Amino acid sequence: MLLGCREADAWATLGPTFIGLTAALPGRICQTGAIRTTLDIDGDLMRTLLARLPGRSKTDAIEYAIEVFLADDSVDRLKKLAGTLEIDDLSSELRALDRTT
Q: Which site among 10, 14, 23, 61 is 20 to 30 Å from 77 CA-CA?
């Protein structure tokens, strides 16, 4: 995913700040929106993940696993908030207003 490209000269003054966040093209440097990193992941864990997601690269499989975890965690956090807020049921009043307009 390329977010934006600039002439290489314009980025030269930024130095190493953007290492890992840019991709070089002939005469241009483009932001990719990705962060390049090195992880030490248990081999059995990675093999199991890749077996459950056949055809995906390691990067795609890890990104998918993170997305699924974050989605599930968001649901869990919302469930924990259940009952902590007073919510008035205005549905009948809103339906009545809707029918008169």
A: 61
